[in-house]
Amino acid sequence: MVVKGLNLEIPENKVTAIIGANGSGKSTLLKSITRIIPYDSGNVILDGEEINNIDTKELAKKLSILPQTQEITEGLTVGELVSYGRFPHQSGLGRLKREDYYAIDKALEMTGTDKFKYRSLDALSGGQRQRVWIAMALAQETETIFLDEPTTYLDLAHQLEVLTLLSDLNKNENRTIVMVLHDLNQAARFADFIIAMKDGKIVKAGDPEEVISAPVLKKIFNIDAMIGRDPVTDKPMCLTYNIINGGNDNEKENYNNYADTASGF
Question: Which residues contact 2 (CB under 8 A, 6 or more apart)?
């Protein structure tokens, strides 16, 4: 996917979600601004400096990224994996120092994975493993954490667990969180700022009220969406939707009848 004409500022100390259909350029955008893949033109500025001019080890002290899929060495313990987050801070022989052990233990405690410290990563559930990977990013002690679909392959409870953890890290630690999400209502609930993409372009960027709207969702997903309010958070949420120029007659009739009676939302 080629991302063109990008002009974007990611808010500091906020949670940003990137949404869009498959192939819209979400992961490409994330990888470009974290220097995983090169970009042909333009600039990515981090702390006032072009990201390509920052030394790799210094960049790893500023931002961390968790890809959609992670590969691990068989038999690796939780504590060993989290210790990898200290690599940017090591020098010489790379031996862990007192401050490294402190950062590791703090990251394990913050993510609730300290009780798994000596357990094999293979023995953990998907949600537990995802929290361990986040602990590794925390041990890296970066101001910004990028995550590519952190809830993929997790059940609903573990999705909520991971997103709540990221939200708490933002609120309590002032970490800037940037993540690709598929679920619109999760994006609306947990993000302060949402970037909606289609065909490698940003269709809309703003707060949930601006982005989780029927006109925007029509553009990026080709759906006729009905937007209501989350009764708990009062954030916008997609109540139901219909494919534009799709669906059978009964579905369309039921949708229209529901829309006529849903004006109170």
Answer: 25, 28, 200
- Report CA 167 to chain centroid distance, whole Å: 11
In the chain, where the domains are located: 15-221
Of 176, 48, 50, 72, whose CA–CA distance to 122 is shortest? 72
The span from the CA of 51 to the CA of 45, in Å, is 6
From residue 174, how far is each of 13, 43, 168 by CA, in Å? 5, 25, 9
Place of tokens 């109540």: 239
Write down the CATH superfamily of domain 15-221.
P-loop containing nucleotide triphosphate hydrolases (3.40.50.300)
pLDDT tens, position by position, 125-164:
888 988 999 999 999 999 999 999 998 888 899 899 999 9
163/189 Cα distance (integer angstroms): 10
Neighbours of 208 (CB within 10 A): 23
Question: What's 86's DSSP letter?
Answer: G
Q: Which tokens hold the place of 156?
A: 């609903």
Terminal CA-to-CA distance of the chain, rounded, Å?
38
Q: What is the pLDDT of residues 186-214, one digit of tens each?
A: 999 999 999 999 998 999 999 999 999 99
Q: How many CB atoms lie within 10 A of CB 45?
A: 10
| Close Cβ partners of 164 (under 8 Å, ≥ 6 residues apart) | none
CA distance 85 to 88: 7
H/E stretch holding 28 reads helix 26-33
pTM here is: 0.86
Spatial separation of the C-alpha atoms in residues 99 and 135, rounded to whole Å: 16
